[in-house]
Amino acid sequence: MDPVSGTPALSPGRVHKILFVCTGNSCRSVMAEGLLKHLLKPTGRSVQVLSAGVGTAGGMGPTPETVEVMEREGVDVSLHLSQPVTPALLRSADLILAMDESHRETILLRHPEMAGKTFLLKVFQAPAPPDNPGVPDPIGRSLEVYEQCLLTIKEAVQRVVQWLTRR
User: Fold this and answer.
1) How many other C-beta atoms can be found within 10 angstroms of the C-beta atom of residue 42?
2) What CATH number should be reported for the domain holding residue 57?
């Protein structure tokens, strides 16, 4: 398994739980979670999809901008409540997809045993290493920045769906 290239040793058929990780679990990871759930529905592939943050105590809703851009995608994330990354959550996930290197490093610093299943979202299954492997944080920025963030996440999440539904 190579975390730099995003090629896991785990086969798609053995992935039953995916965890998206960002900082506050109010923007990026919420978008990724909502999109993956939405895109997996028509495939019939049953995967539990969650998100969490390395810098949240939990219990907060998504930003209004996150709710708005996701509504435009036909995905309702308005009831999402943030949760912190916990050892139990990490252990239970088959695949952990971090939004940027600081999130991946935080997870691996605390839990080095997660290295084989922790990847950067933009790098995972990418045909070539991206120039910027992180998903920029839109918090506190304009709606247009949130829209661009969603496009970046959507491209990466579509690769996850293709990988999960590969026959």
Assistant:
1) 9
2) 3.40.50.2300
